[in-house]
Amino acid sequence: MSSGILIIGAGQSGMQIADSLRELGFEGAITMVGDEQIPPYQRPPLSKGFLYGEADEESLQFRNEKFYEDNRIELVLGDGVVEVQLNSDGASGVATTASGRALAFDQLALAPGSTPRKLNLTGSELDGVLYMRNIEDARALKSCWDGAENVVVIGGGFIGLEVAAVARKAGKTVTVLEGLDRMMARAVCPTTSEYFKNFHERRGAKIVLNAKIAGFEGDGRKVSGVVLEGGEVVPADIVMIGIGVVARTEIASQLGLDLPNGLIAVNEFAQTSNPNIVAAGDATLLPNPTGADGQVRLESVQNAVDQAKVAAKTLMGQRETYHALPWFWSDQADIKLQIAGLSTGYDQTVLRGNPDEDSFSVLYYKNGRLLAIDCVNQPVDFMAARRCLTDDQTIDPVAAADSSVKLKTLITN
Amino acid sequence: MPQVTYILPDGSETTLEARDGDSVMETAVKNGIKGIVAECGGACSCATCHVFVDEAFADVVGGPGDLEDDMLDGAACDRRDTSRLSCQIKMCADFDGLRVEIAPKQV
């Protein structure tokens, strides 16, 4: 009897691999195994809609029970894989879960995701020092939310700023401590960073750039403040740390797969260094899917989904190169930031619209060709640029600066 | 629970019971209805859950908000008078019996 396909990781990417396999007509067994207790769910709302109370746990789930039954996708939840043994064919084998359950497979897919980068300083273990990745993190934050007056966010990235925005809306005193000299430095250019700093300050958050954190203080049980180098203490009932993530590579490491920079290396077909094993999502290092040179890591819903579709095809013996335009979004209060493309290596930016009116776009160019766009409350620009970049087209930088002309009318080869 | 009927691009129909407060998009996706892509998971960020609301329900459901309106301009399928992004239609008793046609092209 066939053992089918085992998917390690029950997040966005694992879910998509399972879904795509059935859509492609795979008829064997599909088992998806993860260490979280609830079926696969959306993570992005955890730091916004879920915290606002607009979305509950049931509404976050990707599929209902009936879907998994109808599609014969077996979920093994709350019981992550701790060990994998491959057979001599290098493809099939047996995985063992934390509880000792044995899961035999013919083919293996890895979608392990990542875990928050930890800040290990004096007092890190105090109650109220929190991270945001999964539903348990979100529950923990929610459980102490109402009683908290002072919220300190460490890390001025997407997640930190989203939580800061929710906290200000709830009337809390908010301080954002960013270690670099601008916000979201990894994702956006200085113009966009500056806009978001002003925006959060206008809403009453205190932003500290180049912050150096020495540790946390408390009463031995619960946190009461963040200690900066130099001795200043920022009062804190909640400390929300969002300083990036570390890929979960334990299983890939056991399997002896290539792990450059702590990421699972895959090719354009989502194959790992063992071509029988595919991997998708946050934990992978992949060839730039825009077709440009180099390898990238993409921590996004778009990549989790699109790379998973390629991985499913590879498992089915189809050869489809992963070619897609990366895109990202972040909702901070009533500001929607949408990014299309990868701006790495840009040599010119063009501002379109007016940041003072909370509505503008920044277009990134290299050698006169459009690479990427940041859109702030400019969904029409976003949609146009996404289409343009997906079709490998460009927009003249001089013409793009005139916001009275629709971007989509300016798209050229 | 209010019911919603999806008319797929191939003309076939599926009727589902929606959880009160779940969006028309969520109800479709959770049940594995194909054709509604919903890349962004309901954040009004991608315009890949485009539907045409049945004329009979156009008034009760209402038109798109400003942001949604702008997103619809960039949708993969040309919009019609009753175009909506289904992630922005939350099901409630008033919408019981709602019929939506899934736009044939989403991405």
Detailed description of the structure:
The complex is a heterodimer of chains A (413) and B (107). Chain A has 413 residues and is an alpha/beta fold. Chain A has three domains: 5-115 and 245-315, 3-Layer(bba) Sandwich (FAD/NAD(P)-binding domain), CATH 3.50.50.60; 118-241, FAD/NAD(P)-binding domain, CATH 3.50.50; 334-412, Enolase-like, domain 1 (2-Layer Sandwich). In chain A, 24% of the residues lie in helices and 30% in strands. Chain A contains eleven helices and 28 strands. Chain A has helices at residues 12-23, 49-52, 57-60, 65-70, 135-145, 158-169, 190-202, 250-254, 301-315, 379-390, 397-400; strands spanning 5-8, 30-33, 73-76, 81-86, 93-97, 102-105, 107-110, 114-116, 129-131, 150-154, 173-177, 206-208, 213-218, 223-228, 233-235, 238-241, 245-247, 264-265, 277-279, 284-287, 295-296, 327-332, 335-341, 348-354, 359-366, 369-376, 394-395, 411-412. In chain A, strands 3-2-1-7-19 form a five-stranded parallel beta sheet. In chain A, strands 9-16-10-11-12 form a five-stranded parallel beta sheet. In chain A, strands 22-23-26-25-24 form a five-stranded antiparallel beta sheet. In chain A, strand 22 and strand 23 (335-341) form a beta hairpin. In chain A, helix 1 (12-23) crosses helix 9. In chain A, 46% of the residues are buried. The model of chain A has no long low-confidence stretch (mean pLDDT 96). Chain B is an alpha+beta fold. Chain B has one domain (3-102): Roll (Ubiquitin-like (UB roll)), CATH 3.10.20. Chain B has three helices and five strands, in the order E-E-H-E-H-H-E-E. Chain B has helices at residues 24-30, 55-61, 66-73; strands at 3-7, 13-17, 50-53, 83-85, 98-102. The model of chain B has no long low-confidence stretch (mean pLDDT 93). Classes of the chains: A alpha/beta (413), B alpha+beta (107). The A-B interface holds A 19, 23, 42, 44-45, 58-59, 61-64, 66-67, 70-71, 301-302, 305, 327, 329, 331, 336, 338, 377, 379-380, 382-384, 386-387, 408 and B 19, 21-22, 26, 29-32, 34, 39-47, 67, 70-71, 73-75.
